[in-house]
Amino acid sequence: MAKPVVKKEYTLTERIYLWEILKGMKLTWGHFWFNFKACWRPGPHTIPTCWQYPEDRTREISPVFRGEHYLQRDDKGREVCIACGMCAKICPAKCITVKKGKREEGEEDKYASKTYPASFQIDLLRCIFCGFCEETCPKNAIVLGREFELARFSKEECILDKRKLLLNYRKAKEEGKLKPPKKRVPVVPAPPKPEKAEGGEIKKSKAAAPGKALKKPVEKVKSTEQVEATQNKEAAEKEK
Ligand code: SF4
Ligand code: SF4
Question: Are 69 and 128 in contact (CB under 8 A)?
């Protein structure tokens, strides 16, 4: 049912707008004086609503922030990536390229696993920083770090190769910006498969299924010869 529109009668103060303008100005001036007084407070963040970036870089970054990627090394300084390609597979922007290499004898101190990424590229221009690569990595090898200054002067600089990714790791380590290792979600084993039901049980279950009528067994029509043969057999048995 349609709702009837009632035309509101405005009062005189509402019609001249003066009171409403004064109310708005009061709010604006309140904010202005609050920020103006805050300018003279001691401390790095003088204005509470503004961060004085880039002069002031002391602002804490959220622990869940996703910035520029780096490739981790283990405690012995070896590359932990196994070049499984799962990050490249899951990447929605298709901006990761991984080429696998096999570890040779004597390279155990360089690579933690038998396989390693011979080349690893991330195109930052296409990356949407979703973090799927980090989530899916089985070795916690790829991490989206805390580096947020991503401006570059050329497209080529936006391609992160393995050398840059490892350099990012070293830089983050030196600056104490490494992310703590993630707690892996425990893998719940799949429930055991139900054993194959026997023929009788399957029939029962079929009958119990709603909307499915039981099929009547079709009687085989006997031929006249077969009927005669059975009649003769019965007669012979009676004579005995
Ligand atoms: S970074 Fe992780 S997911 Fe990607 S190839 Fe290396 S081990 Fe696999
Ligand atoms: S953050 Fe997302 S888009 Fe960027 S490389 Fe990782 S999976 Fe791809």
Answer: no
